[in-house]
Every structure is written in structure tokens, then in C-alpha cells.
Amino acid sequence: MSIFLHPNVGCIESLLDTAASLSSPNKKWRSAFTKIYCVRTLLSPPKKTTAKTTSRCPSYTVLSIYAGTSDNQLVQETNPDQFRKFVENNGIATALQTNNDGGICSSPSDEDVATEKINNKVSRSPSYTVLSVYNGKLENDFFKIDPKSLTNLVKEKNLDQLQQLDGIHGVAFALKTDSEGGICSSEEDIARRHEAFGSNTYKKPPSKSFFHFVVEAFKDLTIWILLGCAALSLAFGIKQHGPKEGWYDGGSIFVAVFLVIAVSTVSNYRQNRQFEKLSKVSNNIQIEVVRNGRRQQISIFEIVVGDVICLKIGDQVPADGLFLDGHSLQVDESSMTGESDHVEVNSSQNPFLFSGTKVVDGYARMLATSVGMNTTWGQLMSQISRDTAEQTPLQARLNKLTSSIGMVGLTVAFLVLVVLLVRYFTGNTTDSNGNREFNGSKTKVDDIMNAVVAIVAAAVTIVVVAIPEGLPLAVTLTLAYSMKRMMADQAMVRKLPACETMGSATVICTDKTGTLTLNQMKVTRFWLGPELIEEGAASSICRWVVELIQQGVALNTTGCVYRATSGAQCEFSGSPTEKAILYWAVHEFDMDMEEMKQSCTILQVEAFNSEKKRSGVMMRKKTDNTIHVHWKGAAEMILAMCSSYYDATGKLEFLDHGAREQFEQIIQAMAANSLRCIAFAHKQVSVEKHEDVKDLKKLNEDSLSLIGLVGIKDPCREGVEKAVQDCQYAGVNIKMITGDNVFTAKAIAIECGILTPNQDMSTAVVEGEKFRNYTQKERMEKVDKICVMARSSPFDKLLMVQCLKQKGHVVAVTGDGTNDAPALKEADIGLSMGIQGTEVAKESSDIVIMDDNFGSVAIVLRWGRCVYTNIQKFIQFQLTVNVAALVINFVAAVSAGEVPLTAVQLLWVNLIMDTLGALALATERPTEELMDKPPVGRTEPLITNVMWRNILGQAFYQIAILLTLQFRGESIFGVNEKVKDTLIFNTFVLCQVFNEFNSRKLEKKNVFQGIHKNRLFLGIIGITIVLQVLMVEFLKKFADTERLNWGQWGACIGIAAASWPIGWVLKWIPVPSKSIFSYLKWKK
């Protein structure tokens, strides 16, 4: 663009400084005439000036001009009245096709036009001069339409308003968008659009604060009872012993309760933050847009008003907008309207698209008109927050278990309370000096209250220890931990229950393309008629046939080819299959996709989907107005639609029975070599026939001419065979469900290890149609033996999932297409593909496999088992403590009239087992041994016979040892009662520490295997021991303990360490695989 300084620039600048006193119309006219004056001044021959003259100008007003004949409808010769009326309505900048901030180029194509016009002589056509004036400031009305009008336009589906704005292209012009090339992606342009129309993000309800979780922790009734006991104990203690000594008991309970609340709050807060991060990742959808004339993928959050967005089947519409161009577009608006019927979108009757809706058929390009909070979907989403308190099935089962144990604990606590109160008021208890505590009316009221408070606190603390609130916490911790780790292993969990359910999976139904294979496709075979055409031999093919191939590839595709300059490398976009075919056509046949599109007009399109397995297009050639139909799709399906074929010379041959068999053999041979077979077919349609089928919206599907067959190689992923073997070894059956033909499916299945070469293929391999036509009884009989289903439709996949579930299997299914959504929802675990998967498939799934790799599916299976096993480990650890603590306190209370473990000591044990224990055992990483066991399935009890054996064995040992210390401890160790109680407390805690090692392995005898890899476990054990030493040796008054000598410490450690050999011996005791409770039910 020519940029220069004119001698009269000072005069021009003075004219630009409009007087503030002028009215708005006068300002507009003054501006208009100023610009016209500028044009005349600049078109006059410039006088010679010196550098000195130029420097006298107070500032530099930059003028950008071009002149020449304009093709634009708005810049043309017109009479003054028309021009004046247009300027009054639109402003001089619009009349002259300039941006108010000075830009005339919004895309590379505009710059080319501008440059061409600049090269013309300025003096030849003064009436076509376009002027842009920069005066040091940006106008506020850069875009000729306001956000509210755009929002209402789409929201109200107002066609009249759209017509007033000169249609969709008028809106695009107002938004400074090139309908073909999109917007300019400069930082300045994006920032301007953000400022004018907002960003594509939603205002979310504020995150739950740390204080919210503190309040939640205080909602626990037992906490309030304990706080009440602590307050009473504190008040009576201070009254009896004075502030200096009397605060210990009550203060200790306060501190212990504070620790329990703090740990619970921090855990829940961190979990909530973790889910919020995952939510951000799952909502960050990649969208294909056109910017600077080039297709590119950007985040949904980066969409701006004016963007040209490419939509295909399965996509979520990312913003409100208008239909620019496309074919057969149908959207599901049920998320907005609740109506299940699909809505057709076109440029004439319904060009309106809404954010949050789903594309169910066809493809299109849309113009974004509203984003973020200006869309109806945005306003809806701003009021919805993700429920991070989602309860998984396992959590529900554990809550029932917690309630059951809690009821037992309450019963025991109530009995202890009654027994202690009766013993106290009947004078059967003595103080530290051996005197009776209760002497009827002689006893002070304060002493009675203190004794009652101490008894109530002991009973309440038994309830606290008995209720295993650590179980839900353990599930939360292990799920949050595993979700984070699974993200690093290329699996994003969308729904929490899937984490644990995956561990129970007995069958995995997997896709082939992209999951078992690399999805890096390349055309390696091309058959034209019965002749194999070698690579680079395209010159030997008839020109007419080459043109048909180019038309069939360039026009019947959802991909595109972009070339920045004539010598630059081509960039291909679309699905891997589309990219492979486009690459082949460009390099083998020198196809110019843009030229091919310009030479034809597309009349009708039938988009590809996984049910039809083909796509078609009807087009009219501009040179001779002839109408042609092109089909592309699965080779045997296209072949069935053909009655003739072309050979390399362009001769059309009749497709008789012999020729058809020959083509079928070619297809089978390519399929046996693991090639995906695609066929191209063509038919010329008369104008009359086109008019007949125009209203049917269905392309001609019979009597086609076969153009050629291509074989596309998609190699198997590295490591997929091992992943399949690992799953099979773990007792999980792998079934491959693919849309490819039987021969390709067999070849890939054998290569991946799903089939063995000597396997009976008659029962192991079935076609979708055959499976569909079985009776229900036949399906149920055969479904377990089927390993491969070829040429399957999404309905066939759904049917298989339903049959497997009826047989009692826990089914995981992978899917990537929109039509896979029913099967993904029906399955126990839906696994969608992160790369190839549509947004509809991802929304229907529970876990997104980010790299589309079957190896990641096997890792998810291992993680699922890990979650389930970790929770079982913690249950075993927790119930051992519960049984031991309840029995010891109950027996001691009934027999001796006192509890050996005080409220503070029991709260400390509760903290160890509920929180630190959960953290230690719930964060074990998956090991190879997890895949050695068969899957759990649906009916396996949560607490197995193996676990009951370990729990009861360890609990009986602890009860026996601690009751011995309770009744014979003083004489055995020669100590007083205070030291004996400390020995009981210390031994009890150390028993739990040593038993934590036993809980690492439910069945294996070597509990130390892999322990060096779990630093968190070792760290928690270390912290627990250090804190226990502090409790016993340094916090005597807080914990109500006495210091122990080295011998006593050694005795405690020795007694506790016996848990290891006892655990080893217990694991030699055989137990029946069938649950003991099932025998009880049978006897009934």
C-alpha cells in the first residue's frame, strides 16, 4: 500500500480537528468533505518539497490510498444524492470500504487486490479512490453492529432482521470477516473482538472456599458432642484444679477435635480443587476454524465473534452463529429446547445455530455471532456447577457398611455408658488414692459432674472410633489420586464411578481404527478396473478417468488442502482416511482442489457416517452444465451399487458376474493384507432426472460406474499385542467391533492377538448383519464365543453390549463416533477417543482415552483394579482397629469399671487410622500382580473371606495382648496403673503401625515387596512413629501418659512386631472362595 506525506498535509490535519461545538450531522459532513478534499489534494501533482518543509508539520497524518476500477458493489460511481444518503446511513468509512481505525485489509486476498489497484495510475480514475485516514486514535464503532443485536438476531431466529442486515454476508461484512478466509488472526484484531463482544468463557459460580469445607466438617454430630464434652471438661477442670492445671483434659479433647477437623477439611478442599482442574481440561474442546484463509485448530475458549467455524458430524456447536455454507446439516437442539427431533439448518429458511447443540448429520461452516455469556447456553452454564460430591457405587456401599458398624459402635458405647454410670453411682469406683468416688450426699456436685462428663466423653469417643468415617475418605483419596495419575497415563476420567467399575470389567469391546491401529493411513494400492496401477504411473491413465478421480476426491470430502504459496508444501486436514486419499490424489494425479471446486457447483451432499459407510455428492460442471453423482465408501458396498467399470484407457465395461467376482477377490486380497478398501464410483445424471429426485433429497445409488479401488494401510500400534495379552491373562475377554470387512478385521485381529490363526473362525468371527438377524436365544448362546464383529453398525455394537450385560458381564466399550453414543451409555464403562472421538461420543463416555491407544485402555483396567484393591486394603486395616478398640473398651468397662484408652488417646488412634492410614494405603500404585487375578465381576462381596481371615486373626491377637496388659500389666512389668495404661495405649498404636504393613498385601506373604517405591507410605509410617513418641514422652499432660523407659519401649515394639509373623501364618490358612455369608443365606 502506498504511504506518503503530501506538502498540504498540515492543512489536512487542521481540517481533521473538528470543532467541539459542531452538531453530530455537521461533524459527519465535515469529516466526509475533509476526506474528499484530501483525495483531490493528493491527486493533484505534488510540488517539490524539502526535508525542512516536511519537518515543519506539527505531526504526521498518514494517508493510505489506492485507485482503480472497483468490483465491490459499495464502491462504485454514483450520483451525489445517492452517495449522501448512503453516507448518512453508513458513514464515509463504510461508503469508501475502509475501517475506521485505518485498515482496509482483513485477509491476504484483500491485500492482493489493494496492491494490484495501487499499481494503476492514480490520475486515471479519481472517482474510485478509497481513502483511509489515521488520526492517532481508534474509533469505538469499528464493528457496524452491536453485540445485543447479534444475540437477539439468533436467539429470536429473526429472518427479517437478518434481511435488513443484507443477509449473512452482510453480517460478516459488519463484523469485518472474510466469508472465505475468516478473520485476521493478529493479536490486535483478536483483542478488539474480545473487547467488543467478550470471550467464549462462562461465568461460573464461585468455587467452594476453604471455609465452606470447615463448616461441612462441623456438621458431624459426633464432633459437636465431643466439643460439648470438651467444654464441660474444661469448665469443671478449671473450677476444680485452677486454670494452670485444670485445662489439660478439656483442652486436649479440643486440640484432638481440631486436628480431626483440619485434616478432613484439607483433604476435601484439595479433592475439590482437583476436580475443578479436571473439569477445565475436559471442557477444553478443540475447534476447527478458518483464519487468514487457512484451516486450523484452536481451543473452544479462543473462539471470537466473526470466526468462521467448520462443523462436522458429532461436533458441539461452540458459539451462537449463522450458517455460511454446507450440506445436509442437521443439529440436535434437545439440550436447548428439550425436543428430540433433529433440526435442519440451511442458508434460506433456518440459518441459526445455537451454542451447546450437537451436529448429527452433514457438515457446514458457520459465522460466530455471539460467544460466552452472550449465548443462551452460556447463561445456562453459568448457573450450573459440576457436582464434585458425586457419589460412586462403592462409596454408597461403604456408607452402608459405615452405618452398620456405627450402629454396633453406638450399642457398645451405650452399654459402656450405662455400666460406668451404674458402677459410679453404686460406689464401685475408686479414685487414684483408692477412695470411693461416690459417697452419696457427701460427694460434691462438681465431683459428680466431672465424673459424669468423663464417662460421657469416654462413651462418645468409643462412638468416634467405632464409626469408620475414614472409609469414604479413603475412597475419595484413592479416586482423586488415581484420577491425577491416570491423566498422566493418557486417560481423563469424566465420571468418578468409572474408576472403580473398570476394575471389575470382564469384557472390553474395542474399535479397530486408531485404537488397535496407529490411524496413520497411506494409500498403498490402486486398482483401475482389474489392473493394479503402480505408484507414479498416473500418466498412463486416460485423462477423462483422471478427471473423474480428481472430482470424486476433491468434491466428495470433508477434508481440505491448504497451500500458503504456489511453491509451498501442502497441508492436509480432515480425518486420517480423508487425509490419506487427498495426499494420494494431490501427489499422484496433481489434483488442484481449489481449481476443482471452482469449476463445479455442488448441488447435494450425503455425508458419511458409520451406519451408511459411504458418502456421495451431486455436482454440476460449469463448463457444460452436465450433472454428475460421485460416491465413495466401503469397497464391497460401492461395488454392489455398480453395473459397469472404467479401465485405464477410459473404456466403460459391463460389470458381469465374472468381473464382479474378480473385483471381490481383489478386495478380499487387499483386506487379507490388513488394508482398508475404499471404492470410487460415478454416474452422469440427466437434468430431467435431477429435477425428479431433487425433492427426495436422495442421491442416485444404482447403475453406477466403478472408477477404482484404493487400499489404505493402517499399521497396528506398537505394544498393542502385549496389551491384549495382558488383558486376556487377567481374565478379561477382548472383542473387536469394526466397520471394516471380514477379511481386514480377521487380519488385524490375528496381528493383535485377539484371534489365533488356528482358531475356529466360524464361531469367533461374525458380521454385524448376521448377528443382528440371530434370534435372542442364539445371540445369548454365541455372544461369549464371538471375538470379532465386522461390518458392524452402531446398533450391532449396542446389541452386543446388551447381550453381554444380560449374561452378567461388566462391559467396557470404546467408541469415537456420534452413533456410538448409545453403546457408550449402555456399557458399564464408556471409553471415548480423545483424538478421533466426536464431542457427542466424549459426552456419552465415562473415561476419555487421550491418545486413542488400546495400551492406555489396558492401563485404565490396571488402575481400576488398583482403586478397588486399595480400598479393600484400607477396609481390612480399619476394621481390625475397630474390632480391637470396641472389645477392649467394652470388656474393661464391664469388668473393671474403667476404659484403658482415654478420649484423647482414642481420638489420636482415630486420626492415625482414618486419615494417615487412608493416605498411606489409598495411594499405592498399580502393580503387575493385579493382572494375575480374574476380574471381580458384579457379585463379588466387598469384604472377602481372605479379608475376614486377616481382620479376625489380627484383632483377636490385639485383644488378647491388650486385655492381658489391662488385668496383669502392673504385676508383669512392676509398674503403677498410670504406666500400665500408657503401655496399653503405646502397644495398641504400634500394633496398628505394624499391621499397616500387613494390609499392603491381602494375600501375598511378602508384605515388603515394592515398599521402597512408595515413599509416601514410608513417610506416613515415619511421621506416625515420631508423633507417637512425642505423645508418650513429651505430651504427658495432653495425652494423659507417663514416660516409658527403654525396656518398656522395647516390650511394646516386640509385642506389636509379632503382627508380622502372625500375618504370615494367617495367610497359610486356606479359605473358601465363596463368601461365608452366602452359606448363611443358603442355610436359611
TrEMBL record:
What is the protein name stated in its UniProt record?
Uncharacterized protein
